[in-house]
Amino acid sequence: MESTRFVLINTSHAGNVGSAARAMKVMGFGDLVLVAPRFADVLCHEEAVAMASGAADILARASVVPTLAEALDGVDFACATAMTPRDFGPPTHEPRALFAGLAAREAAPRLALVFGSERYGMANEDVYRCHAVLSIPTNPDYGSLNLAQAVQLLAYDLRQALGGFGVQARTPDPELADARAVQGLLDHLQAALTDIGYLDPAAPKKLMPRLNQLFNRAGLTNEEVHILRGIARQMSKTANPASPS
Fold first, then answer.
1. Which residue blocks in the chain are alpha helix, DSSP H?
2. Structure pTM?
3. Cβ distance 89 to 134 under 8 Å?
4. What CATH number is associated with residue 62?
5. Would you say residue 47 lies in a domain?
6. Radius of gyration of the chain, Cα coordinates, nearest whole angstrom
7. Which residues make Cβ contacts (< 8 Å) with residue 110, sequence separation at least 6?
8. Please, which residues have CB within 8 angstroms of residue 217's CB and are 6 or more apart in sequence?
9. Does residue 169 belong to any structural domain of this protein?
């Protein structure tokens, strides 16, 4: 199922093809097949490449075939995507539950997800070629999805059924400044505040202890200490332009 094929039938908008390729790549899939697209050169169309946004390699490897039968060559289990229930045809499933069941099989099938035209969806005869119909749970009063949106939703559910990618580890927190570094900042800042006339050394009151408490609560990093000391240095330089830097 890692090599699931995404099949787009009779696509009419090049941008949707590019966006679909992007949606696939984000979820780690790369097998794209177009069935009789409106424009034969859609895979290299400027809008398709632009909307792929870094997934142009998916477009470069994609295939264009004239029929759905050819697109499903080598596939064990094909899933149609259709909003309108058919009176006759394969059973309808909620995607997440079906994917979980397929992934749990001892021998998972080679899967294909089949999407219809933006203008009229999937024809009945194409639906009948599939083993199941996937119905994305949407607002019952408005269930219209853009083609690429549908590809993204199903690709996400499938990836989750396969175990997902997990949350990317965040960048480690920068190293906090130690007490010595903070004290050095306070001494430097005290001198700078005196230089600009904000602090009276004869009557400092509790300004510096309060700044000390402020810095302790903030949990300054070494980089932040360097920045604040740079500001203090510039304050003293501005107040005493004749002094050596």
1. 14-26, 46-52, 56-61, 68-71, 95-103, 124-128, 147-161, 179-195, 207-218, 222-239
2. 0.69
3. no
4. 3.40.1280.10
5. yes
6. 31
7. 1, 3, 4, 5, 74, 75, 76, 77
8. none
9. no
User: Per residue of the chain (245 residues), what is the pLDDT tens digit?
Assistant: 778 999 999 998 999 999 999 999 999 999 999 999 988 888 988 899 999 988 999 999 999 999 999 999 999 999 998 766 567 778 889 999 999 999 888 888 899 999 998 888 888 899 999 999 998 888 888 877 889 999 999 999 999 999 888 766 677 778 899 999 999 999 999 999 999 999 888 887 888 999 999 999 999 999 999 999 999 999 999 988 876 65
Residue 244 counted as domain residue: no
- Burial of residue 59 (number of CB atoms within 10 Å: 0-12, 13-18, 19+): buried
Cβ 126 vs Cβ 86: under 8 Å: no
